[in-house]
Protein backbone atom coordinates (compact mmCIF):
# COMPACT_ATOMS: atom_id res chain seq x y z
CA UNK A 1 0.00 0.00 0.00
CA UNK A 2 2.44 2.68 -1.18
CA UNK A 3 1.52 6.33 -1.47
CA UNK A 4 0.68 5.99 -5.15
CA UNK A 5 -1.89 3.32 -4.27
CA UNK A 6 -3.67 5.56 -1.77
CA UNK A 7 -4.89 8.20 -4.17
CA UNK A 8 -8.33 7.53 -5.55
CA UNK A 9 -9.63 11.08 -6.18
CA UNK A 10 -12.25 11.24 -8.87
CA UNK A 11 -13.00 7.52 -8.87
CA UNK A 12 -16.47 6.70 -10.20
CA UNK A 13 -19.29 5.66 -7.87
CA UNK A 14 -21.81 2.89 -8.44
CA UNK A 15 -24.04 3.64 -11.44
CA UNK A 16 -27.75 4.22 -10.96
CA UNK A 17 -30.40 1.64 -11.97
CA UNK A 18 -31.74 1.83 -15.52
CA UNK A 19 -35.16 3.23 -16.40
CA UNK A 20 -38.34 1.48 -15.28
CA UNK A 21 -39.28 -1.44 -17.46
CA UNK A 22 -35.79 -1.96 -18.81
CA UNK A 23 -34.36 -5.48 -18.82
CA UNK A 24 -32.32 -6.31 -15.72
CA UNK A 25 -28.59 -6.26 -16.34
CA UNK A 26 -27.05 -9.64 -17.03
CA UNK A 27 -25.32 -11.20 -14.08
CA UNK A 28 -21.52 -10.97 -14.44
CA UNK A 29 -19.59 -14.21 -14.35
CA UNK A 30 -16.82 -14.83 -11.87
CA UNK A 31 -13.61 -14.36 -13.79
CA UNK A 32 -10.85 -16.95 -13.28
CA UNK A 33 -8.40 -14.35 -11.97
CA UNK A 34 -10.52 -13.40 -8.95
CA UNK A 35 -11.40 -17.00 -8.26
CA UNK A 36 -7.68 -17.87 -8.32
CA UNK A 37 -6.88 -15.02 -5.91
CA UNK A 38 -9.62 -16.18 -3.54
CA UNK A 39 -8.24 -19.72 -3.59
CA UNK A 40 -4.79 -18.40 -2.68
CA UNK A 41 -6.23 -16.61 0.37
CA UNK A 42 -8.18 -19.70 1.35
CA UNK A 43 -5.07 -21.92 1.12
CA UNK A 44 -3.11 -19.49 3.28
CA UNK A 45 -5.89 -19.32 5.86
CA UNK A 46 -6.94 -22.97 5.97
CA UNK A 47 -3.77 -24.87 5.08
CA UNK A 48 -1.10 -22.48 6.40
CA UNK A 49 0.21 -22.39 2.84
CA UNK A 50 2.72 -19.87 1.56
CA UNK A 51 1.27 -17.51 -1.01
CA UNK A 52 4.37 -17.54 -3.21
CA UNK A 53 4.11 -21.33 -3.50
CA UNK A 54 0.34 -21.46 -4.04
CA UNK A 55 0.23 -18.67 -6.63
CA UNK A 56 2.00 -20.59 -9.41
CA UNK A 57 -0.30 -23.55 -8.81
CA UNK A 58 -3.40 -21.36 -9.17
CA UNK A 59 -2.05 -19.66 -12.29
CA UNK A 60 -1.51 -23.06 -13.86
CA UNK A 61 -4.90 -24.37 -12.68
CA UNK A 62 -6.75 -21.47 -14.31
CA UNK A 63 -4.35 -21.13 -17.26
CA UNK A 64 -3.53 -17.50 -16.46
CA UNK A 65 -0.55 -15.61 -17.82
CA UNK A 66 0.58 -12.12 -18.75
CA UNK A 67 -1.64 -9.34 -17.42
CA UNK A 68 -4.07 -11.80 -15.82
CA UNK A 69 -1.25 -13.44 -13.87
CA UNK A 70 -0.02 -10.03 -12.75
CA UNK A 71 -3.54 -9.10 -11.62
CA UNK A 72 -3.87 -12.29 -9.54
CA UNK A 73 -0.46 -11.77 -7.96
CA UNK A 74 -1.16 -8.19 -6.94
CA UNK A 75 -4.71 -8.96 -5.80
CA UNK A 76 -3.79 -11.93 -3.59
CA UNK A 77 -0.48 -10.58 -2.28
CA UNK A 78 -1.91 -7.11 -1.72
CA UNK A 79 -4.89 -8.46 0.21
CA UNK A 80 -2.52 -10.47 2.43
CA UNK A 81 -0.18 -7.52 2.99
CA UNK A 82 -3.06 -5.20 3.83
CA UNK A 83 -5.01 -7.70 5.90
CA UNK A 84 -4.65 -5.86 9.21
CA UNK A 85 -5.78 -2.54 7.77
CA UNK A 86 -8.53 -4.08 5.67
CA UNK A 87 -9.95 -6.08 8.55
CA UNK A 88 -10.18 -2.92 10.66
CA UNK A 89 -12.06 -1.20 7.83
CA UNK A 90 -14.35 -4.19 7.25
CA UNK A 91 -15.17 -4.43 10.96
CA UNK A 92 -16.01 -0.72 11.03
CA UNK A 93 -18.63 -1.41 8.36
CA UNK A 94 -20.26 -4.31 10.21
CA UNK A 95 -22.87 -4.37 12.94
CA UNK A 96 -21.74 -7.89 13.88
CA UNK A 97 -17.98 -8.23 13.26
CA UNK A 98 -17.97 -12.05 13.30
CA UNK A 99 -17.68 -13.38 9.75
CA UNK A 100 -17.00 -16.71 8.14
CA UNK A 101 -13.39 -16.85 7.03
CA UNK A 102 -14.31 -17.45 3.40
CA UNK A 103 -16.58 -14.39 3.38
CA UNK A 104 -13.87 -12.26 4.96
CA UNK A 105 -11.47 -13.43 2.24
CA UNK A 106 -13.89 -12.14 -0.41
CA UNK A 107 -14.17 -8.82 1.41
CA UNK A 108 -10.40 -8.46 1.76
CA UNK A 109 -10.05 -8.93 -2.00
CA UNK A 110 -12.83 -6.45 -2.64
CA UNK A 111 -11.40 -3.82 -0.29
CA UNK A 112 -7.98 -4.12 -1.88
CA UNK A 113 -9.49 -3.53 -5.31
CA UNK A 114 -11.46 -0.52 -4.05
CA UNK A 115 -8.70 1.17 -2.06
CA UNK A 116 -5.41 0.16 -3.65
CA UNK A 117 -5.97 -0.91 -7.26
CA UNK A 118 -7.20 0.79 -10.40
CA UNK A 119 -10.40 -1.22 -10.49
CA UNK A 120 -13.65 0.78 -10.95
CA UNK A 121 -15.85 0.67 -7.88
CA UNK A 122 -18.80 -0.93 -9.65
CA UNK A 123 -16.56 -3.69 -11.02
CA UNK A 124 -14.91 -4.41 -7.67
CA UNK A 125 -18.29 -4.62 -5.92
CA UNK A 126 -20.15 -6.59 -8.59
CA UNK A 127 -17.39 -9.17 -9.05
CA UNK A 128 -17.04 -9.59 -5.27
CA UNK A 129 -20.76 -10.26 -4.95
CA UNK A 130 -20.58 -12.84 -7.73
CA UNK A 131 -17.48 -14.39 -6.19
CA UNK A 132 -19.41 -14.74 -2.92
CA UNK A 133 -22.33 -16.38 -4.71
CA UNK A 134 -19.99 -18.74 -6.56
CA UNK A 135 -17.65 -19.71 -3.72
CA UNK A 136 -19.77 -19.27 -0.58
CA UNK A 137 -23.44 -19.15 -1.53
CA UNK A 138 -26.32 -16.74 -1.97
CA UNK A 139 -26.75 -15.94 1.72
CA UNK A 140 -23.86 -13.50 2.34
CA UNK A 141 -24.13 -11.66 -1.01
CA UNK A 142 -26.21 -8.83 0.45
CA UNK A 143 -23.77 -8.30 3.28
CA UNK A 144 -20.78 -8.24 0.90
CA UNK A 145 -22.54 -5.72 -1.33
CA UNK A 146 -23.44 -3.46 1.60
CA UNK A 147 -19.98 -3.56 3.21
CA UNK A 148 -18.14 -2.81 -0.02
CA UNK A 149 -20.48 0.07 -0.85
CA UNK A 150 -19.60 1.59 2.53
CA UNK A 151 -15.90 1.00 1.92
CA UNK A 152 -16.15 2.75 -1.46
CA UNK A 153 -17.53 5.89 0.18
CA UNK A 154 -14.05 7.18 1.09
CA UNK A 155 -10.42 6.57 0.22
CA UNK A 156 -7.78 4.66 2.14
CA UNK A 157 -6.28 7.66 3.93
CA UNK A 158 -9.70 8.67 5.23
CA UNK A 159 -10.38 5.15 6.44
CA UNK A 160 -7.04 4.98 8.23
CA UNK A 161 -7.80 8.26 9.96
CA UNK A 162 -11.07 6.70 11.12
CA UNK A 163 -9.96 3.22 12.22
CA UNK A 164 -6.31 3.53 13.31
CA UNK A 165 -6.18 4.24 17.07
CA UNK A 166 -3.81 6.56 18.90
CA UNK A 167 -1.67 9.46 17.80
CA UNK A 168 -0.22 9.37 14.27
CA UNK A 169 3.14 7.63 14.42
CA UNK A 170 2.39 5.77 17.65
CA UNK A 171 2.89 2.00 17.67
CA UNK A 172 -0.87 1.35 17.90
CA UNK A 173 -1.65 3.71 15.02
CA UNK A 174 1.16 2.36 12.83
CA UNK A 175 0.06 -1.22 13.45
CA UNK A 176 -3.32 -0.57 11.82
CA UNK A 177 -2.18 2.04 9.31
CA UNK A 178 0.62 -0.14 7.91
CA UNK A 179 -1.02 -3.53 8.50
CA UNK A 180 1.48 -5.07 10.94
CA UNK A 181 0.81 -6.82 14.25
CA UNK A 182 1.61 -4.47 17.13
CA UNK A 183 4.37 -6.72 18.46
CA UNK A 184 6.08 -6.66 15.05
CA UNK A 185 5.97 -2.86 15.03
CA UNK A 186 7.65 -2.82 18.45
CA UNK A 187 10.25 -5.41 17.40
CA UNK A 188 11.18 -3.49 14.25
CA UNK A 189 11.43 -0.23 16.19
CA UNK A 190 13.80 -1.92 18.64
CA UNK A 191 15.73 -3.39 15.70
CA UNK A 192 16.33 0.02 14.15
CA UNK A 193 17.71 1.38 17.39
CA UNK A 194 19.67 -1.80 18.14
CA UNK A 195 21.45 -1.56 14.80
CA UNK A 196 22.29 2.10 15.30
CA UNK A 197 19.54 3.69 13.22
CA UNK A 198 16.91 6.29 14.05
CA UNK A 199 13.53 5.12 15.30
CA UNK A 200 12.04 7.87 13.13
CA UNK A 201 12.67 5.58 10.15
CA UNK A 202 10.03 3.15 11.41
CA UNK A 203 7.10 4.40 9.24
CA UNK A 204 9.27 4.18 6.11
CA UNK A 205 10.40 0.67 7.04
CA UNK A 206 6.82 -0.49 7.62
CA UNK A 207 5.67 1.05 4.34
CA UNK A 208 8.54 -0.70 2.53
CA UNK A 209 7.20 -4.02 3.82
CA UNK A 210 4.00 -3.30 1.90
CA UNK A 211 5.66 -2.48 -1.43
CA UNK A 212 5.58 -5.29 -3.97
CA UNK A 213 9.22 -6.34 -4.44
CA UNK A 214 10.88 -6.15 -7.81
CA UNK A 215 12.11 -9.44 -9.24
CA UNK A 216 15.87 -9.71 -8.75
CA UNK A 217 18.00 -12.27 -10.56
CA UNK A 218 21.41 -13.69 -9.77
CA UNK A 219 23.77 -14.35 -12.69
CA UNK A 220 25.89 -17.17 -11.34
CA UNK A 221 29.55 -16.40 -12.03
CA UNK A 222 31.26 -18.47 -14.68
CA UNK A 223 27.93 -19.66 -16.06
CA UNK A 224 26.28 -16.61 -17.62
CA UNK A 225 27.77 -13.36 -18.87
CA UNK A 226 26.62 -9.76 -18.91
CA UNK A 227 25.74 -9.73 -22.60
CA UNK A 228 23.31 -12.62 -22.22
CA UNK A 229 21.57 -10.96 -19.27
CA UNK A 230 21.25 -7.62 -21.06
CA UNK A 231 19.97 -9.31 -24.22
CA UNK A 232 17.20 -10.88 -22.12
CA UNK A 233 16.13 -7.46 -20.84
CA UNK A 234 17.71 -7.54 -17.38
CA UNK A 235 19.61 -4.60 -15.90
CA UNK A 236 22.38 -4.67 -13.26
CA UNK A 237 21.49 -3.24 -9.87
CA UNK A 238 24.95 -1.75 -9.38
CA UNK A 239 25.31 -3.20 -5.87
CA UNK A 240 25.90 -6.94 -5.91
CA UNK A 241 28.13 -7.77 -8.91
CA UNK A 242 25.79 -10.64 -9.79
CA UNK A 243 22.39 -8.97 -9.19
CA UNK A 244 20.08 -7.99 -12.04
CA UNK A 245 16.57 -6.56 -12.02
CA UNK A 246 13.91 -8.10 -14.22
CA UNK A 247 11.60 -5.58 -15.81
CA UNK A 248 8.73 -7.99 -16.28
CA UNK A 249 7.51 -10.63 -18.67
CA UNK A 250 7.84 -14.38 -18.76
CA UNK A 251 10.90 -15.51 -16.83
CA UNK A 252 10.99 -18.72 -18.82
CA UNK A 253 12.09 -16.61 -21.79
CA UNK A 254 15.52 -16.38 -20.14
CA UNK A 255 17.42 -19.59 -21.04
CA UNK A 256 19.98 -19.04 -18.27
CA UNK A 257 17.18 -19.17 -15.71
CA UNK A 258 15.59 -22.28 -17.16
CA UNK A 259 18.96 -24.02 -17.24
CA UNK A 260 19.94 -23.00 -13.70
CA UNK A 261 22.82 -20.74 -14.76
CA UNK A 262 20.85 -17.85 -13.27
CA UNK A 263 18.21 -17.77 -10.56
CA UNK A 264 15.67 -15.60 -8.80
CA UNK A 265 17.38 -14.35 -5.64
CA UNK A 266 17.02 -11.22 -3.54
CA UNK A 267 20.09 -9.03 -3.51
CA UNK A 268 20.35 -9.24 0.26
CA UNK A 269 20.71 -13.02 0.02
CA UNK A 270 23.38 -12.62 -2.64
CA UNK A 271 25.32 -10.28 -0.39
CA UNK A 272 25.21 -12.82 2.44
CA UNK A 273 26.84 -15.44 0.20
CA UNK A 274 29.42 -12.88 -0.95
CA UNK A 275 30.24 -12.03 2.67
CA UNK A 276 31.38 -15.61 3.15
CA UNK A 277 33.22 -15.86 -0.17
CA UNK A 278 34.98 -12.49 0.24
CA UNK A 279 36.28 -13.09 3.77
CA UNK A 280 40.04 -13.64 3.88
CA UNK A 281 41.31 -17.11 4.76
CA UNK A 282 44.96 -17.99 5.19
CA UNK A 283 46.21 -21.35 4.00
CA UNK A 284 43.87 -24.09 2.82
CA UNK A 285 40.63 -22.96 1.19
CA UNK A 286 39.05 -26.07 -0.29
CA UNK A 287 35.98 -27.04 1.74
CA UNK A 288 33.00 -24.78 2.31
CA UNK A 289 29.86 -25.60 4.29
CA UNK A 290 26.32 -24.29 3.86
CA UNK A 291 24.82 -25.50 7.13
CA UNK A 292 21.17 -24.55 6.50
CA UNK A 293 21.08 -24.82 2.72
CA UNK A 294 17.40 -25.04 1.76
CA UNK A 295 16.03 -24.09 -0.68
CA UNK A 296 19.46 -23.75 -2.29
CA UNK A 297 19.88 -20.26 -3.71
CA UNK A 298 22.89 -19.37 -1.59
CA UNK A 299 24.38 -22.84 -2.08
CA UNK A 300 24.25 -22.39 -5.85
CA UNK A 301 25.94 -18.99 -5.74
CA UNK A 302 28.58 -20.24 -3.31
CA UNK A 303 29.23 -23.31 -5.47
CA UNK A 304 29.71 -21.15 -8.56
CA UNK A 305 32.20 -18.98 -6.68
CA UNK A 306 33.93 -21.98 -5.12
CA UNK A 307 34.35 -23.72 -8.48
CA UNK A 308 36.35 -20.76 -9.77
CA UNK A 309 38.82 -21.26 -6.90
CA UNK A 310 39.06 -25.04 -6.96
CA UNK A 311 36.94 -25.35 -3.80
CA UNK A 312 33.71 -27.28 -3.18
CA UNK A 313 30.60 -26.70 -1.03
CA UNK A 314 28.84 -29.24 1.17
CA UNK A 315 25.17 -28.28 1.39
CA UNK A 316 23.39 -29.53 4.50
CA UNK A 317 19.64 -29.24 5.05
CA UNK A 318 17.65 -30.66 7.96
CA UNK A 319 14.44 -31.32 5.98
CA UNK A 320 14.54 -33.90 3.23
CA UNK A 321 12.09 -32.15 0.89
CA UNK A 322 14.12 -28.95 1.12
CA UNK A 323 17.32 -30.91 0.50
CA UNK A 324 15.71 -32.09 -2.72
CA UNK A 325 15.13 -28.45 -3.67
CA UNK A 326 18.82 -27.83 -3.05
CA UNK A 327 19.71 -30.76 -5.32
CA UNK A 328 17.69 -29.19 -8.13
CA UNK A 329 19.02 -25.71 -7.40
CA UNK A 330 22.69 -26.68 -7.74
CA UNK A 331 22.28 -28.81 -10.85
CA UNK A 332 24.26 -26.36 -13.00
CA UNK A 333 27.15 -25.90 -10.55
CA UNK A 334 28.17 -29.48 -9.88
CA UNK A 335 31.86 -28.62 -10.21
CA UNK A 336 31.53 -26.59 -7.02
CA UNK A 337 29.44 -29.08 -5.01
CA UNK A 338 30.95 -31.58 -2.60
CA UNK A 339 27.51 -33.03 -1.90
CA UNK A 340 23.98 -32.34 -0.66
CA UNK A 341 23.03 -34.07 2.59
CA UNK A 342 20.03 -34.20 4.88
CA UNK A 343 21.03 -33.81 8.51
CA UNK A 344 20.56 -31.98 11.78
CA UNK A 345 22.97 -29.06 11.70
CA UNK A 346 23.21 -29.03 15.49
CA UNK A 347 24.34 -32.70 15.51
CA UNK A 348 26.56 -32.89 12.44
CA UNK A 349 27.97 -36.05 10.91
CA UNK A 350 31.31 -34.41 10.04
CA UNK A 351 34.25 -34.05 12.37
CA UNK A 352 35.23 -30.72 13.96
CA UNK A 353 37.75 -28.52 12.11
CA UNK A 354 36.70 -29.96 8.74
CA UNK A 355 35.82 -26.80 6.78
CA UNK A 356 37.56 -23.58 5.80
CA UNK A 357 34.35 -21.54 5.48
CA UNK A 358 30.82 -22.04 6.79
CA UNK A 359 27.56 -20.22 6.25
CA UNK A 360 24.74 -20.32 8.81
CA UNK A 361 21.66 -18.85 7.12
CA UNK A 362 19.66 -19.66 10.22
CA UNK A 363 15.90 -20.34 10.45
CA UNK A 364 14.40 -17.11 11.76
CA UNK A 365 11.19 -15.15 12.21
CA UNK A 366 11.46 -13.81 8.65
CA UNK A 367 10.48 -10.30 9.72
CA UNK A 368 13.00 -8.88 7.28
CA UNK A 369 11.31 -10.52 4.28
CA UNK A 370 7.69 -9.46 4.79
CA UNK A 371 7.61 -7.93 1.30
CA UNK A 372 8.00 -11.40 -0.17
CA UNK A 373 6.11 -13.42 2.44
CA UNK A 374 3.18 -11.17 3.35
CA UNK A 375 1.38 -13.88 5.31
CA UNK A 376 4.33 -14.37 7.72
CA UNK A 377 3.46 -11.30 9.75
CA UNK A 378 0.13 -12.85 10.73
CA UNK A 379 1.59 -16.24 11.66
CA UNK A 380 4.53 -15.35 13.83
CA UNK A 381 4.18 -14.74 17.57
CA UNK A 382 6.72 -13.33 20.07
CA UNK A 383 7.19 -16.79 21.58
CA UNK A 384 8.40 -18.02 18.18
CA UNK A 385 11.43 -15.77 18.46
CA UNK A 386 12.37 -17.27 21.82
CA UNK A 387 12.32 -20.80 20.35
CA UNK A 388 14.21 -19.74 17.24
CA UNK A 389 16.96 -18.01 19.23
CA UNK A 390 17.83 -21.27 20.97
CA UNK A 391 18.15 -23.01 17.63
CA UNK A 392 20.13 -20.14 16.12
CA UNK A 393 22.68 -20.24 18.93
CA UNK A 394 23.10 -23.99 18.58
CA UNK A 395 23.63 -23.72 14.83
CA UNK A 396 26.23 -20.97 15.19
CA UNK A 397 28.12 -23.03 17.78
CA UNK A 398 28.02 -26.01 15.41
CA UNK A 399 29.36 -23.93 12.51
CA UNK A 400 32.23 -22.55 14.60
CA UNK A 401 33.14 -26.08 15.64
CA UNK A 402 33.00 -27.20 12.00
CA UNK A 403 35.62 -24.75 10.70
CA UNK A 404 39.32 -25.14 11.34
CA UNK A 405 41.30 -22.56 13.32
CA UNK A 406 41.73 -19.60 10.98
CA UNK A 407 38.50 -20.44 9.17
CA UNK A 408 35.51 -18.11 8.94
CA UNK A 409 31.80 -18.39 9.68
CA UNK A 410 29.10 -16.05 8.41
CA UNK A 411 25.95 -16.06 10.54
CA UNK A 412 22.92 -14.61 8.71
CA UNK A 413 19.19 -14.13 9.17
CA UNK A 414 16.42 -12.57 7.10
CA UNK A 415 15.34 -10.80 10.27
CA UNK A 416 16.66 -7.61 11.85
CA UNK A 417 15.24 -8.50 15.28
CA UNK A 418 17.92 -7.80 17.90
CA UNK A 419 17.46 -11.11 19.73
CA UNK A 420 18.01 -13.05 16.50
CA UNK A 421 20.99 -11.04 15.25
CA UNK A 422 23.27 -9.15 17.63
CA UNK A 423 21.89 -11.10 20.57
CA UNK A 424 22.76 -14.52 19.13
CA UNK A 425 26.28 -13.54 18.08
CA UNK A 426 27.05 -11.86 21.40
CA UNK A 427 25.76 -14.80 23.45
CA UNK A 428 27.79 -17.36 21.51
CA UNK A 429 31.00 -15.34 21.63
CA UNK A 430 30.65 -14.77 25.37
CA UNK A 431 30.59 -18.53 25.88
CA UNK A 432 33.79 -19.35 24.01
CA UNK A 433 37.30 -17.95 23.70
CA UNK A 434 38.26 -19.43 20.34
CA UNK A 435 36.33 -17.05 18.06
CA UNK A 436 35.88 -13.34 17.53
CA UNK A 437 33.65 -11.02 15.52
CA UNK A 438 35.32 -9.42 12.52
CA UNK A 439 32.44 -7.48 10.98
CA UNK A 440 28.66 -7.27 10.76
CA UNK A 441 26.05 -5.41 8.78
CA UNK A 442 22.29 -5.02 8.51
CA UNK A 443 20.38 -4.24 5.31
CA UNK A 444 16.94 -2.61 5.18
CA UNK A 445 14.18 -2.63 2.55
CA UNK A 446 13.50 1.10 2.89
CA UNK A 447 17.14 2.12 2.31
CA UNK A 448 18.77 -0.78 0.46
CA UNK A 449 15.91 -2.00 -1.70
CA UNK A 450 16.24 -5.60 -0.54
CA UNK A 451 15.20 -7.85 2.31
CA UNK A 452 16.39 -6.86 5.79
CA UNK A 453 19.28 -9.33 5.86
CA UNK A 454 21.76 -9.44 8.74
CA UNK A 455 25.24 -10.93 8.43
CA UNK A 456 28.11 -11.26 10.90
CA UNK A 457 31.55 -12.62 9.99
CA UNK A 458 33.28 -14.56 12.77
CA UNK A 459 36.75 -16.07 12.73
CA UNK A 460 37.78 -19.22 14.53
CA UNK A 461 41.06 -18.63 16.38
UniProtKB/TrEMBL annotation:
Region annotated Disordered, chain positions: 1-32
Location of the active site: 414
Compositional bias (Low complexity): 15-24
InterPro entries, sorted: MeTrfase_RsmB-F_NOP2_cat (IPR049560), MeTrfase_RsmB-F_NOP2_dom (IPR001678), NusB-like_sf (IPR035926), NusB_RsmB_TIM44 (IPR006027), RCMT (IPR023267), RsmB/NOL1/NOP2-like_CS (IPR018314), SAM-dependent_MTases_sf (IPR029063)
Pfam families cross-referenced by the UniProt entry: Methyltr_RsmB-F, NusB
Listed CDD domains: AdoMet_MTases
SAM-dependent MTase RsmB/NOP-type domain ranges (all copies): 188-461
Positions bound to S-adenosyl-L-methionine: 292-298, 317, 344, 361
Keywords: Methyltransferase, RNA-binding, S-adenosyl-L-methionine, Transferase
Coiled coil: none
Gene Ontology molecular functions: RNA binding; RNA methyltransferase activity
A GO BP entry: regulation of DNA-templated transcription
Family membership: Belongs to the class I-like SAM-binding methyltransferase superfamily. RsmB/NOP family.
Protein name: rRNA cytosine-C5-methyltransferase
Organism expressing this protein natively: Nocardioides jishulii
UniProt lineage: Bacteria, Bacillati, Actinomycetota, Actinomycetes, Propionibacteriales
Amino acid sequence: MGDHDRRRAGRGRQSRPGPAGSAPPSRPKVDPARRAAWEVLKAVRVDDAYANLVLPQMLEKYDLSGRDAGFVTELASGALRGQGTYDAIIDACLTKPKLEGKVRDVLRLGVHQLLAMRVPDHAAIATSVELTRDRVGQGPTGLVNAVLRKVASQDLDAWIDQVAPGEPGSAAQLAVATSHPAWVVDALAEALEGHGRDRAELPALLEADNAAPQVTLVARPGLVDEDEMRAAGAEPTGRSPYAWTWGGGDLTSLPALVQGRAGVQDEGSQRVALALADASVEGRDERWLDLCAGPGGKSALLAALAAQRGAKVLANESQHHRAQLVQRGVRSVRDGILGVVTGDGTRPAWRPDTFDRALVDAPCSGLGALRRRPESRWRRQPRDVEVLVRLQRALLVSALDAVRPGGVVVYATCSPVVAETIGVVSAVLRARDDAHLESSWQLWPHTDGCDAMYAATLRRT
